[in-house]
């Protein structure tokens, strides 16, 4: 199920964070993780019209945004980073990733 959801994140950035969080528990899943995955599928069923849409007559100004939390994952205190890039008003690239090391300050997490 996680593989299918990861495939869908290519056109549905709104589920990216939730899917990546669920993917962390693939090696030792609990019933609560299955409930979370089913909730994502239910969200997808109720929002079929959401997704990426690119207009031909948009401007081509490039904007990039990024953010990170500080030790947001309470199990190992690792932070999560995220970034998105817009060409005009159209989302063209994004990611969400758990950092490899533990940040000792908010500046280091960023």
Structure write-up:
This protein is α+β, with helices and mostly antiparallel strands and 110 residues long. The chain folds into 2 domains: 1-51, no CATH class; 53-110, no CATH class. It contains 4 helices and 3 strands. It has helices at 2-8, 16-23, 31-46, 106-109, and strands spanning 62-68, 80-87, 90-98. The chain has a 3-stranded antiparallel β-sheet. Strand 2 and strand 3 (90-98) form a beta hairpin. The longest helix is centred in the middle third of the chain and has 16 residues, at 31-46. The model has no long low-confidence stretch (mean pLDDT 83).
Quick summary:
The chain has 110 residues and is an alpha+beta fold.
Structure class: alpha+beta
Cα gyration radius (Å): 16 Å
Fraction of residues in H or I helices: 25-40%
Helical run tally: 4
Average pLDDT taken over every residue: 83
Strand order of the largest sheet: 1-2-3
Which terms summarize this structure?
110 residues; alpha+beta; 2 domains; 4 helices; flat; RVT_2 domain-containing protein
Task: Please give the structural blueprint.
Layout lengths: L1 H7 L7 H8 L7 H16 L15 E7 L11 E8 L2 E9 L7 H4 L1
């Amino acid at each position: 199920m996680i593989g299918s959801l990861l495939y869908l994140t290519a056109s549905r950035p709104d589920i990216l964070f939730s899917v990546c969080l669920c993917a962390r528990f693939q090696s030792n899943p609990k019933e609560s993780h299955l409930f979370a995955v089913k909730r994502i599928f239910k969200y997808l069923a109720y929002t079929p019209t959401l997704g990426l849409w690119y207009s031909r007559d948009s401007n081509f100004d490039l904007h990039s945004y990024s953010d990170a939390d500080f030790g947001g994952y309470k199990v190992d205190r690792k932070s999560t980073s995220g970034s998105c890039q817009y060409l005009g008003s159209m989302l063209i690239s994004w990611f969400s990733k758990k950092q490899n090391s533990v940040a000792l300050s908010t500046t280091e997490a960023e």
